[in-house]
Amino acid sequence: MSFHVYDTTLRDGAQQEGMNLSVADKLAIAPYLDELGVGFIEGGWPGAVPKDTDFFARAARELTLKNAVLAAFGATRKVGTRAEDDPQVFALLHSGAPVVTLVAKSDIRHVERALRTTAEENLAMITDTVRFLVSEGRRVVVDAEHFFDGYRFDPAYSRSAVEAALAAGAEVVALCDTNGGMLPHWVSDIVTEIRDAVGDGPVLGMHAHNDTGCAVANTLAAVDAGCSHVQGTVNGYGERTGNADLVTVVANLELKGGRSLLAGEGLGDASRIAHAISEITNISPYARQPYVGASAFAHKAGLHASAIKVDPDLYQHIDPTLVGNDMRMLVSDMAGRASIELKGKELGFDLSGQAEVLTRITSRVKEAEANGYTYDAADASFELLLVEEMVGERPRYFDVESWRTIVERTGHRGVVATAEATVKLNAGGERHVSTGEGNGPVNALDQALRLALTRVYPQIETFELIDFKVRILDQEHGTDAITRVLIETTDGQRSWSTVGVGPNLLEASWEALTDSAIYGLVHAGVEPR
Ligand SMILES: CC(=O)SCCNC(=O)CCNC(=O)[C@H](O)C(C)(C)COP(=O)(O)OP(=O)(O)OC[C@H]1O[C@@H](n2cnc3c(N)ncnc32)[C@H](O)[C@@H]1OP(=O)(O)O
Ligand SMILES: CC(=O)C(=O)O
C-alpha cells in the first residue's frame, strides 16, 4: 500500500494566529512543498475564502507540480440540501483540484449541538457529498473532524461516520484530533480498533494538532497502528499550538523507520525549504525546531565537543546533512579545549596539536564571558579573539585616537532629538577626523566610523548594521550595571555578529562596531594599510 504525505500548510497552517498568506504567497510556497516531495498540497477552501478561490484558478494556470497534486478543502453539504445544489460543494468541484478533502462531523455531540441535526442526516451528508464528488471524477479525502474525542464518547457513531465515507467512495479517511487533546497511547488504541473494524484495505490517515505537545508523537502512533496517510504542515504552523510538523513526522518515519516517503529533493533539502517557507510566511524560524532548526545540531557543552571530536555520532541522533542542516559548535563559558578546536576548524583555523593556544583561548573566553561577553551569539568577535591569540594581535586596520558623541534636543513641545559623533583615527598613514549624524548616538558613531574609514577602505560602504541588541547585566547594581551590545552587520552577501561590553551603552557599542568593521574588512580580503 502506498503511503501518503499530505501537506496542509496553505490551509490549516494558514489558520495560525498572525499568519496572512496572499495568493502570491501561496503560489510561492506550493513549489517548495512540491520540491520537498509531498504527495498532496491542500491549497485552501475555495468558495469560502475568496483568496483561496483565486489561488486554485491561478494555480491551474501558473503552477507546474512535479510530485504533488492539489487538494481543495471544504465541508460536506449543508443540512437538508442536495450536494449537487450546494454552492459550497459546487465551488470545490469547480476549483479544478483533482482531490477534494471534505471536513465531516464524526462526533455525535458536534452533530447534535453544532450542526443541530440528526445522526442519520449527518451520515447522509457525508454519503451524498462523497458520492457526488466521486461521480464527478474527484479523488475524495474525508477529514473526520473530532474523530478521537467523538470515539471516546460514542465509538459506534464515530465508526459509522468513517464507514459511511468509505462506503461512498472516499479514497482516504483522515482521523482528526481536531482539539489536539490526545495522547499517543489513546491514539494507538483507537486507531487499532478502527483498523480492525474497517479491515486492511481502506486508507486511514492522521491529522493531529499539537495542544498536548504530542502532534508528532500521535501521528507516529497512528502510523504504527495502521494509518498510511499523514497530514501536517511545514514548521508546524496551524491553529492554536499548531499542526503536526510534517518535516519532523517524515524525518522520523524515513530516518528512524527506514521508509522512503518523499519524492523530489526529499529530506536532504528540508532545512533550506523550511527556512525559505518561513521567509514567505514572515514568521521567524524557530531555532530549536527538530531536524531543521538552527540549533538542532548546535553544541555548547565542552564535554559534548570532546566526544564529537572523536566522532560526531556520539552526540548526535542523526547526521545533520541528511536533513540539509549543519553541525555547529558554540563557544561560551561552557567550552573546553575541544570546543575551541572544533569551532576553530568550522571557522577555517587548524588548531589541532596547539595545546597551549587552545588553553589560552579557552581561559580567555571563560574570563570574558564571566565579564559579560557572549560568544555563542557573536562568532565574528570570537574569530578576532582567536586570531589575536594565534598570531599575537588582531589585524590593525586603524588606530583610534578618540571618539565622542553628543545628543541634541531641539524644539519645545515637538521635541526632536538628533545625535552627532566625532571619530579621530589613523589609517593608511594619515589622520582622519570625521563627524557623523544619526537619529541616536550609536547610529551617529556608526556613521562617523564609516566616514573615517571609507577614504582608506572603500569596501566598508557596503557594510550595513542590520540588528542591534542591548542587554543590561547585573541589574542589582543599578547605575553600575554593565551593558552588553550585540550587533549584526551585512555586506549584502553574508552577515556577521559581534559583541561589545562596557560600563555604558556607548562604550559597549563602540567595541561591537569596531569588531564588526575589522571582521568585515578581513573577510572582504582587504589588507591593513
Ligand atoms: C477543523 C477545521 O479547522 S475545519 C476548517 C475551518 N476553516 C474555516 O472555517 C475557514 C473558512 N470558513 C469560512 O469562510 C466560513 O466559516 C464559512 C464560509 C465556511 C461558513 O460561513 P457562514 O456561512 O457564515 O456560516 P457560519 O460560519 O456561521 O457557520 C458554519 C455553517 O457550516 C455548518 N457546518 C459546520 N461544519 C460542517 C460540516 N462538516 N459539514 C456541513 N456543514 C457544516 C454549520 O452547522 C453552520 O451551518 P448554518 O449556517 O446552517 O448554521
Ligand atoms: C480538519 C481539521 O483541520 C481538523 O479537524 O483539525
From TrEMBL:
Q: What class of enzyme is it?
A: transferase
GO MF term list: (R)-citramalate synthase activity; 2-isopropylmalate synthase activity
Q: Which reaction does it catalyse?
A: pyruvate + acetyl-CoA + H2O = (3R)-citramalate + CoA + H(+)
Keyword Transferase (UniProt): yes
| UniProt KW RNA-binding keyword | no
The pathway that the record names for this protein is: Amino-acid biosynthesis; L-isoleucine biosynthesis; 2-oxobutanoate from pyruvate: step 1/3
Q: Which UniProt keywords apply?
A: Amino-acid biosynthesis, Branched-chain amino acid biosynthesis, Isoleucine biosynthesis, Transferase
What Pfam families is this protein classified in? HCS_D2, HMGL-like, LeuA_dimer
Instruction: Please name the GO terms of the biological process aspect recorded for this protein, alphabetically.
Output: isoleucine biosynthetic process; L-leucine biosynthetic process
What does the similarity note say?
Belongs to the alpha-IPM synthase/homocitrate synthase family.
Against NCBIfam families, the record matches this protein to:
citramal_synth
The name this protein goes by in its record: Citramalate synthase
